[in-house]
Amino acid sequence: MIPPGSLALLAQGAAVSLLLAAAAIVGGTVLAIVLAAAAFSRIAAVRALYRVYVYIVRGTPLLVLALLLFYAMPALDLRTGPYIAGTLVLIIYTGALFAEVFRGGVLSIPRPQWESARSLGLPPVAMFRKIVAPLVTRYTLPPYVNVCVMTVKASSVLSIISVWELTLAAREIIERTFAVFTILGLAAAFYFVMCFGIDRLGRRVERRLALRGFAGERA
Amino acid sequence: MIAIRGLRKAFGGLRVLQGVDLDIGDGEVVALIGRSGCGKTTLLRCINFLEEYDAGEIRLDNTPLWYREAPGGGRQRVSEAEARRQRQQMGIVFQQYNLFPHMTVLDNVLLGPRFSQRVSAVEADHLGRRLLARVGLEGKMSAYPAQLSGGQQQRVAIARALAMRPKVLLLDEITSALDPELVGEVEDVIRSLLSERIMMVIVTHALRFAREVAHRIAYLSDGAIVELGSPAEVLDRPKDPSLKEFLRHVR
Fold first, then answer.
1. pLDDT tens digits, residue range B109-161?
2. CB–CB contact B87 A126 (8 Å)
3. CA-based Rg of chain A, rounded to a whole angstrom?
4. In B, which residues are within 8 Å of A131 by CB distance?
5. How many domains does chain A have?
6. What helix, strand, coil percent values describe chain B, rounded to 5?
7. Contacts of A115 in chain B (CB under 8 A)
8. What is the interface pTM, i.e. ipTM, of the complex?
9. In a domain, A215, yes or no
10. Residue A167 lies in a domain
11. Which domain holds residue A204?
């Protein structure tokens, strides 16, 4: 029933999708840390810039953003091809989503925790490394994993700008074989397995980082 | 010593402190008592600048804290770095302990010396262990705060405050959140500190404890100190009518 050779092609496509998602997750996380810092800046203009960025990126379909960047880049004389443009657009997109996740995490740090840290006279770097980052990581892990899973699926949009990944691989095979439901079903299964894996990984990290001694430690 | 002069603080239109003057001598323990809302906790939080104040001055060993004179007149806040340095001279213990939940007991105690005062890892570790032994928790160093009883957490919080080798210890109703049977162990730790002659400002509702450990008691009402004296003077021979009323209700 499965057209010969199509499984290997789909697996290759899935590997590219996973790579795109991984690059977007790493790049987006770094971008989001900078963005979240901007969200809490003392300078009002910086906070406003943050809001503008998040509103624009979150308020625009990824598909439109991808097309925009793909066509804009040659005009800007950046001959980078679809892979760079695709990765960039995913980073821009996930960066905004992660930034809001992190911002929520910082807002969840109870005021007494800030006061304890301040009363110890902790310098800003130690404050971030020892208090803010560990607490925000723990608070935001479930929504963070949520965005990671979404990123894997969102990478399928890049097929529109000719990034060869799982969805484009599936479409190519379908054009040759007309096995629409088999191939799309298989592609969906590949996506599911990747997302499921990320979910499980997230759970494991969650358990490892769980604050000790609280009820619901094993939730 | 600490000298507080003319301290004023308002939250919006609510005037919480209306000109507080108070001196705390070296090695002196002063208890702040009064009805809830009288401003005693706000006063304590102003001392280590968790609250900004609108007017007045706080000096520690004759050095003004938190604000300095602005070039064009008036006052301005000291830099963040300077505020951090000044804070390191004071330890505060909160009603709700406020330990860092993601760190072991030992790491909670080490944090200040290690990262604020840049003490070496070995030395900080040593100091942390000694202080935890001192509050009777040498067996709990690698436990996490949520694994401890309230009394144990509060003893860790005291060790954490002491780890900065502060000149002043600020205690904000440190036994109010505890089950009655756990109050004694925390009070014992404070008693054991009396021989160190460290300055202490204690906000408390436990008048029995205030009488026992404080050299002087200040009664606050409507944001001002209306009576100040030895425990016997304030608790046994009160002059102010509102203090008499307060003591009748508390007993």
1. 999 888 888 888 898 899 999 999 988 888 999 999 989 988 899 999 999 99
2. no
3. 21
4. 100
5. 1
6. 40, 25, 35
7. 50, 94, 98
8. 0.85
9. no
10. yes
11. 6-209
